[in-house]
Amino acid sequence: MNNEKKQLPKILLPDGSYMPKMGQGTWKMGEDDEKFQREVDGLKYGMSIGFEMIDTAEMYGEGKAENVVGHAIRGEDRSRLYLVSKVYPQNANRKHIYSSLDRSMKLMETDYLDMYILHWREDADLSEVVYCMEDLKDKGRIKRWGVSNFDVADLEDLWKVPDGDKCCVNQVLYNLGSRGIEYDLLPWQREKGLPVMAYGPAGRAGDLVTQDGVSKASLMTDKNVAAVAKKHDASIVQILLAFVLRQKDVIAIPKAVGKTHIDENIAAADIRLTEEDIEMLSASFPPPEDKVPMEKY
User: Of 15, 57, 206, 236, whose CA is between 20 and 30 Å from 260?
Assistant: First the structure.
């Protein structure tokens, strides 16, 4: 691939702003000092070819991934970047969120976030979360906010809170092998105009993992996935990304460090799967027929 920047499509958010339809994930980054510079260089390379969005969290390496991001964006035009981080539920309150955000922004070497996300619900007080997020917006420290790992019941609770419907995204696990959200969560969000941010869009290194960490299947070795990849002269990871990106209101945040994988990821935006392709993929990994407990990792 040449080094001309690709223009990735953008997706409309509930507040009227636009978000890149694909970005770079950072889970597990910063945890190995020997890989630090390679991870920084990977994010830099991704930005150089058109990835404007980087997704991270204070949980990832307890700030080490945010530190990688901070080093990567040095010298970049901040106005062209879309930075996302996530706050622990125990920090999403008036006592802790301001210092949490300060720490994240310091590590990321920025003075605002484009999106700030409640990482999961746990026992967070949703009224308190919304108050804090809206206050941070008013102060100009974040542009907008969202949630992560929220199922339908969680979102219904959020919508009952004053200003809860100002939530702009829900980030959840979604890929060809983890399609539970298609049963009720994705339709609910579609009705509300609330986009999905898909983490793990290619599984965990292509493997599907159960809640207890046991591998249950591999997307990388399935014959139908391989056949669709061959038809499109694409890699299996590209087909998995294309499966997620085909939904007009779903954003994907794959993680890659090596240039070849980053090139593959961004090129996946050009793949158009046919109905026949989807039928073939669904023969191996069918959509849910009943409610599925929310998958996450």
Answer: 57
- 83 touches 114 (CB < 8 A): yes
Q: At what angle do helices 185-192 and 152-160 cross, to 10 degrees?
A: 30
As a whole number of angstroms, the distance between CA 203 and CA 87 comes to 23
Which is nearest to 50 in space by CA: 290, 270, 263, 199?
A: 263
| Strand pairing class (196-199; 170-173) | parallel
Helix (H) or strand (E) segment spanning residue 283: helix 275-284
SS3 category, 244: helix
Query: 75-103 b/e with 16+ CB inside 10 Å = b?
Result: eeeeeebbbbbbbbbebbbeeebbebbee
Query: What is the Cα–Cα distance from 249 to 245, expressed in whole angstroms?
Result: 8
* pLDDT tens digits for range 257-291: 999 999 999 999 999 999 999 999 999 999 999 99
- Do the Cβ atoms of 120 and 148 come closer than 8 Å? yes
CB atoms within 10 A of CB 116: 28
